[in-house]
């Protein structure tokens, strides 16, 4: 699209296909999409594409370089595909149309290699069925949160001037294309905090959601809607929203059937209930299973008998905690909340109710342990939620590639045996980092987070660094080969370590927070220390950290399955990077690394800033290889990152120097 960054689908990525002869076999709207993609590539690069919709019209596959074909079931489901190359023909087969589309994008990723190297037949299928982005987009601009809550990439892609962006739905389609090219198949189009205008998307404004669904459908993406639990009252005029009330249940059933009339392949509801002021079943003395199951029933009933295929799902969020707690009370612990609320309900949720859990027990900090709930609900379908929008990781002004953090989380054996990726049977979800910015994500390098999330959701045990390479090769189209190596190595150097760099200059050793209240950007060591949000570090003159042990603390460590409960219980076995999350330690405590806590704080904060300076230098050296607009945008963000990193370093180091009175072993200046 004009004026919009092509991200990981630049024209050049289609050159290997567009210069060749392609045969497409099969019928259906997504096969049309595949055909459209190849035809467009051929128009640009001079190749040829033949469409053969008949089952066997006798076209001779060997006359082609690429054959994309719908075939019978091969046990790969509707999204899987196979790819092989023999006798000079690259052959992609799929049973479902979406699989064929994913097969095409697989060939795009392979580039020239798809046509030059023989390859044995390889089967590909997603490990996780639902790979979803939650947009925290408001239809109307919210007076405090703006249009996109925690959005750092401009306005909403979907909504402008209080309604769906009719004239710009072409951009939504282009977004769907990008998402399909990294494997995402579901999008929730509005904020989990549902305000008055947004509530009506469920009823009289469903047509606007349907228009978005139409724009995304050609790329295999279903839409979901965030709804308010109070909808029967605020929209239906009922006196109650009690999930066991017959009138309320009927209202949801009827409303949902109208949603299906407008959007036959509607994905389902996302619900934030009894959380940070949102209404929920607690008001009626009902459990969250009662609430979720009522909506699950409405989604099932409405869909039965329709031709739309699989029915809708309710994604019920587990982010439920007391945000009005007494900071002086060291026994209440926000980290415990999701487990305490939901584990007793294990086994009670309907099959199409998915419990959506943030990957950590707190709230998307740069370092958190895995939520213990994930290993403790074998009878419930769980979805795991990560945050691509960089609320606590630099707000898309700092480079912070989150691939290694997500990969560590997904490979963590939460119940002692299965990984988080395996336990996420209900899907993987990221809070989107996209807006109407020409680079999609504000910081052009933040695109790597979106891409990596999609690819990890497809294959949670993939090596994230391999995915980073893939993103770089696709996004930064080489001009001359020796220069492409320099370009790729430079971008890799800037991104690959950036999460650890960010961790170094911000809150230390898993303690989290220390951000400016409200907007959450920049340092404020005590910003949340004396507030009711449950986000404390408890630093005093002797030490820092939260005692969450069973023996002497809040007992949170005991929520883990074996072996983690024991590992986290003792400072002797707790990993350094999480030490202050689980324990209150003296400044002179010796870490496994051989440094004291206080020296670790000083060293990492100096190193973090040095690493940003080095990364900025690498980026500057790429000025002749990156297009000027993109280079300038990243440079401008880097300057702010460096300023902010220095501010973090100075505030955190001086705070702890003054609290502890311990001098830096290297005699560096601390203010
Ligand atoms: C927090 C955000 C807040 C969200 C909330 C959520 O600060 O804006 O509404 O998460 O996930 O991280 O519901």
TrEMBL record:
One of its GO terms (biological process) is xylan catabolic process. GO terms for molecular function: alpha-glucuronidase activity; xylan alpha-1,2-glucuronosidase activity. GO terms for cellular component: extracellular region. Pfam families: Glyco_hydro_67C (PF07477), Glyco_hydro_67M (PF07488). It comes from the Bacteria. Residues 119-440 form the Glycosyl hydrolase family 67 catalytic domain. Residues 441-668 form the Glycosyl hydrolase family 67 C-terminal domain. InterPro entries: A-glucoronidase_C_sf, GH, Glyco_hydro_67_C, Glyco_hydro_67_cat. This is Alpha-glucuronidase.
């Amino acid at each position: 699209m004009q004026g919009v960054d092509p991200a990981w689908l630049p024209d050049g990525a289609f050159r290997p296909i567009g210069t060749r002869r392609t045969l497409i076999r099969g019928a259906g709207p997504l096969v049309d999409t595949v055909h459209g993609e190849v035809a467009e590539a051929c128009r640009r690069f001079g190749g040829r594409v033949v469409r053969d919709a008949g089952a066997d019209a006798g076209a001779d596959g060997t006359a082609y370089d690429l054959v994309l074909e719908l075939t019978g079931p091969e046990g790969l489901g509707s999204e899987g595909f196979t790819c092989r190359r023999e006798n000079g023909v690259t052959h992609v087969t799929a049973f479902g149309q979406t699989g064929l589309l994913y097969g095409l994008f697989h060939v795009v990723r392979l580039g020239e290699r798809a046509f030059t190297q023989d390859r044995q037949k390889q089967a590909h299928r997603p490990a996780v069925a639902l790979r979803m982005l939650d947009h925290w987009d408001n239809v109307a601009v919210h007076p405090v949160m703006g249009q996109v809550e925690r959005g750092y990439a401009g306005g909403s892609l979907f909504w402008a001037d209080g309604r769906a962006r009719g004239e710009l739905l072409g951009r939504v389609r282009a977004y769907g294309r990008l998402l399909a090219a990294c494997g995402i198949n579901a999008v929730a189009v509005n904020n989990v905090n549902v305000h008055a205008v947004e509530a009506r998307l469920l009823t009289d404004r469903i047509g606007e959601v349907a228009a978005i669904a139409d724009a995304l459908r050609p790329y295999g993406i279903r839409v979901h809607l965030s709804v308010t639990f109070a909808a029967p009252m605020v929209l239906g005029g009922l006196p109650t929203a009690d999930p066991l009330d017959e009138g309320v249940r009927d209202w949801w059933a009827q409303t949902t059937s109208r949603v299906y009339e407008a959007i036959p392949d509607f994905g389902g509801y996302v619900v934030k209930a009894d959380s940070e002021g949102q209404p929920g079943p607690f008001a009626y003395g009902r459990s969250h299973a009662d609430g979720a199951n009522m909506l699950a029933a409405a989604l099932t009933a409405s869909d039965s008998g329709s031709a739309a295929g699989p029915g809708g799902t309710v994604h019920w969020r587990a982010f439920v905690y007391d945000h009005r707690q007494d900071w002086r009370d060291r026994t209440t612990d926000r980290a415990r909340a999701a487990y305490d609320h939901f584990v007793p309900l294990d086994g009670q949720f309907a099959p199409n109710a998915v419990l959506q859990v943030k990957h950590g027990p707190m709230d998307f900090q740069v370092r958190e342990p895995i939520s213990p709930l994930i290993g403790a609900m074998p009878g419930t379908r769980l979805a795991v939620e990560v945050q691509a929008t960089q609320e606590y990781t630099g707000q898309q002004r700092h480079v912070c590639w989150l691939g290694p953090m997500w990969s560590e989380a997904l490979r963590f054996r939460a119940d002692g045996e299965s990984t988080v990726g395996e336990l996420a049977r209900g899907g993987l979800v990221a809070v989107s980092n996209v807006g109407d910015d020409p680079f999609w994500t504000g910081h052009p390098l933040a695109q790597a987070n979106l891409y990596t999330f999609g690819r990890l959701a497809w294959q949670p045990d993939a090596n994230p660094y391999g995915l980073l390479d893939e993103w770089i090769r696709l996004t930064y189209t080489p001009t001359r080969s020796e220069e492409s190596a320099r370009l790729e190595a430079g971008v890799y150097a800037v991104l690959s370590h950036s999460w650890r760099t960010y961790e170094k200059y911000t809150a230390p050793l898993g303690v989290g927070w220390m951000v400016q209240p409200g907007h959450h950007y920049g340092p404020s060591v005590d910003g949340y220390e004396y507030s009711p949000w449950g986000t404390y570090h408890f630093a005093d003159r002797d030490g820092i950290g939260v005692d969450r042990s069973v023996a002497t603390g809040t007992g949170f460590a005991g929520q883990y399955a074996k072996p983690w409960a024991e590992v986290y219980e003792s400072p002797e076995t707790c990993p350094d990077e999480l030490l202050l999350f689980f324990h209150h330690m003296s400044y002179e405590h010796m870490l496994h690394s051989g440094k004291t806590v206080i020296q670790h704080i000083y060293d990492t904060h100096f190193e973090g800033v040095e690493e940003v300076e080095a990364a900025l230098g690498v980026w500057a050296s790429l000025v002749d290889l990156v297009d000027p607009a993109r280079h300038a945008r990243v440079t401008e963000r880097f300057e702010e990152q460096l300023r902010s990193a220095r501010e973090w370093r100075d505030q955190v180091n001086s705070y702890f120097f003054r609290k502890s009175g311990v001098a830096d072993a290297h005699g560096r200046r601390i203010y």
